[in-house]
Amino acid sequence: MKTKNEKTGALLKIRIILTFCSLILLSFLATAQDNDSVQTLLKSDSEFLQVWSPEIKINSIQGKIGTMIGGYTGTLINRSVLFGFAGAVNLSHPQVNYGYFGLIGQYIYNPNKLIHLNGQLIMAYGSTKDYEQQKSSLFDNFWNISGTHFYLMEPGVNLEINLRSNLTLCTGVSYRYVTGMNENAIALSETHVTNYEMSGINFNIGFKIYKKHKNKV
């Protein structure tokens, strides 16, 4: 028999897959063109950029402030739609150690303007585990996150400032929703952190670095 958490996790996985597929479909339809004799999902002169984006996230868990380091990488289409992979791991939270890895999608509005906005969604698989020993420096227990697993969905909005044609400053806010974690796991016997406590607001700042190249489709 499946437990309530397992059923919740399975339902969330289905919702995540459906949501991501819908985003892909809508993004492609938005870039479809009807000027050529043969209609295609992408224009023949579409621009593809490889993006790397290191970032720092600030959040609060169990009433204590912590930071995460991570980022994402992916393909940016016409500087407007990005699909890729995202991940992050705890750096400074004194009690709860966790990390995640998953998918990211972004839509950037008016990307050629100096200051513009983007909306994004991260859907990821994460893990958390109590510290093996008290944290005394930033990198103590850094990779000690292989404990109990959870699912993460994190929508957010970012303000972007073009510093150069291949470099953008990005800062924003997001909400991390966590579910599917076994709150009674031995790995959490000290913190007793819950799905509710792992969920919350994040503030982030980072950079987008672009590698230019064009593909004909």
Provide an overview of this structure.
With 217 residues, the chain is mainly beta. It has a single domain (4-214), classed as Porin (Beta Barrel), CATH 2.40.160. The protein has helices at residues 4-30, 195-198, and strands at 47-61, 64-77, 81-90, 96-109, 115-130, 148-164, 167-179, 200-214. Strand 2 and strand 3 (81-90) form a beta hairpin. The chain is globular. 26% of the residues are buried.
Defining traits:
53% strand; Porin; mainly beta; 217 residues; 14% helix; eight-stranded antiparallel barrel
List the helices and strands and how they pair.
Blueprint: H1 4-30, E1 47-61, E2 64-77, E3 81-90, E4 96-109, E5 115-130, E6 148-164, E7 167-179, H2 195-198, E8 200-214
Antiparallel strand pairs: 1-2, 1-8, 2-3, 3-4, 4-5, 5-6, 6-7, 7-8
Corresponding CATH architecture: Beta Barrel
Bin the helical content: 10-25%
Q: How many discrete domains?
A: 1
Oligomeric state: single chain
* Count of strand segments: 8
Low-confidence stretches: none
Would you kindly provide a brief summary of this structure?
The protein has 217 residues and is mainly β. The chain has 2 helices and 8 strands, in the order H-E-E-E-E-E-E-E-H-E.
